[in-house]
Each structure stands twice: as C-alpha cells, then as structure tokens.
Amino acid sequence: MEFVYIRKINYYETDKMGIVHHSNYIRFLEETRCDWLEKLGMPFEVLEENNITIPVLGVTCDYKHHVTFGDTIEIKPFMKEYNGVRMTVGYDVRDTKTGEVVIQAETRHCFTNEELKPINLKKHAPQFSEKFEGLIKG
Q1: Confidence (pTM)
Q2: Which of 3, 14, 49, 130 has the highest Cβ tally under 10 A?
Q3: Could you give all domains of the chain from N- to C-terminal order, each with its CATH number?
Q4: Number of H helices, E strands in the chain
C-alpha cells in the first residue's frame, strides 16, 4: 500500500529569499513518518505504551528544487532497510504542481526501550516487527 502525505507550505516556513528554509524539511519528514506509522496501526502512543521508542540516528537530505509559500508537496515514505534493531526510511518529495523532485531524503533509526537501551523488535514486539518487515518486502 503506497502512502502519500500532502503538505501545503506555510509562509512562516520560508526564508528571506521566499523559499522553504532547508531546516523545515526535517520537520516535514517527521510529520510524514508519524502519520505513516499511525495509518499502519503503529502510532507513537501505542509504540510507547509497548516500551518502544524510535530515535533518529541520522538524516540525509539532498535538495533538488525549491518550493515557496502556498506550494504543495507530496511526500512518499518507503522502507529501505529493516533488521529488527535498525531501520532506514527513504522519502520521495515532489512538488504536486510540477511533479519535480524537491528533495531526496532518508532517516536512519534504531529501536530502544524507554531507557534508550537498544532492543530487537523481532523479539520485543513481533506484532510490530511483522508490519515493518511487510514494508520492506512490499
């Protein structure tokens, strides 16, 4: 199942040049990831109730084309890697009007308990692990 997150650009997210400030894309990726997990039946509240946190280990973002106030982007997340302990999520971000690639990005994560000790999701919560595994295969 393909997931698409639609995001309209707000005025306050632009810089003096009138384009989206580069730091805002990191927020857009997190908004997308949270909404995606919620739609998959794994909202952060449920994960945290199961003693699971998913800290970000790193972000890579290549800026290809700018967008401005009032533009709308679509963000399509996809699972690049998953092994139960770590995952990498890729993001295809495009301008909905032109279809141009705005950014190509990925975020790298690990799974931890509330004390931030690494856990293997396959052992800790197989019901969630199966959902993540299904994303890598699909």
Answers
A1: 0.94
A2: 14
A3: 5-137 (3.10.129.10)
A4: 4, 5
